[in-house]
Amino acid sequence: MRFQDKVVVVTGAAGGIGSAICQRFASEGARVVVTDVNADGAEKTALRLRDAGGRARSFAADIGGAEGCRAVIADVIAVEGRLDVLCNNAGVNRRGNLLSLTLDDWDLSFAINIDAMFHLCQAALPHMIAAGGGAIVNTASQWGLYPAPNHIAYNVTKAAVASFTQNLARDYAAQKIRVNAVCPGEIHTPMLEAGVKRSGRTIADLDKMVPFGRIGRPEEVAALVAFLASDEAAFMCGSLVEITGAQAVA
Ligand SMILES: NC(=O)c1ccc[n+]([C@@H]2O[C@H](COP(=O)([O-])OP(=O)(O)OC[C@H]3O[C@@H](n4cnc5c(N)ncnc54)[C@H](O)[C@@H]3O)[C@@H](O)[C@H]2O)c1
User: Fold this and answer.
1) Looking at CB atoms within 10 Å, which of 54, 99, 177, 212 has the fewest?
2) Residue 247 lies in a domain
3) How does pLDDT run across 159-195, given as a tens digit for each residue?
4) How many other C-beta atoms lie within 10 A of the C-beta of residue 223?
């Protein structure tokens, strides 16, 4: 019960990794704010957690703009009165290289994958600093460190997430704000399934490409996120932690 009574906000919480992160925090005693643009999906996640005896409520917001991001943090402070952990997990993956990608997809990737982090952190930090500390865990990607072909917007925005994480950590470590990022490889979620379908491959094909013999599971990323947010990781600040089944080094 590392998060007993702590308030944890998770974005992209209707999705594969986000819902697993919520589940993990709720199972360890947190009050989880489940937020996503997909209102039904967010409520489904929250309901599942409550049914299992956890404390969770959903809050629907589009974090593709500053207003939606500020609304998430304003709601948390108004209802919960505090904010201990922020998991910036929402993301989109638009396929394409420089010549095939549309400007709309480039802009959308920046708005959700990195600009939302800027707005959410800007709104959340003053509350964390006033409380004497807090933890932020960002979902980056292996592809932000080692770019996969034909995904320029995704790779560039995830590289920005990695740098953003290091910058924030550096600037606010003295105020005991710990900022870290997870960099997952292929994880079996709706986002991955959509990509696999588009490319005409199967999950079994992906399994074979991972030295560990299979792609990852959302709950495995969630366990790492919870560790980084916990006091067990008290000296971790500015770390980019890969979770890839050794794929990145293959
Ligand atoms: N699945 C993978 O293989 C993999 C690998 C590395 C990193 N990641 C990252 O993990 C995170 C979660 O991905 P996932 O695989 O669970 O994907 P997912 O598609 O299952 O979940 C993403 C969630 O983000 C939400 N979202 C999208 N736009 C939003 C907006 N404007 N406002 C609020 N919410 C919005 C979606 O509704 C969705 O619920 C993403 O940041 C992704 O880039 C995933």
Assistant:
1) 99
2) no
3) 999 999 999 999 999 999 999 999 999 999 988 998 8
4) 15
Atom of ligand 1 nearest to the CA of 186: 3
Contact (CB, 8 A) for 80 and 31: yes
Residue 240 and residue 143: Cα distance in Å, rounded?
A: 12
* Residues in the chain with pLDDT values less than 70: 249-250
What is the CATH classification number for the domain harbouring 201?
3.40.50.720
For ligand 1, mutation pick of 11, 191, 206, 214 (most atoms within 8 Å of CB): 191
Instruction: Check residue 249 and give its pLDDT.
Output: 60
pLDDT value for 195: 87
Ligand 1 surroundings by CB, under 6 angstroms:
11-12, 14-18, 36-38, 41, 62-64, 89-93, 112, 139, 141, 184, 186-187, 189-192
How many structural domains comprise the chain?
Answer: 1
Write out the catalytic residue numbers: 154
Chain center to CA of 149: 22
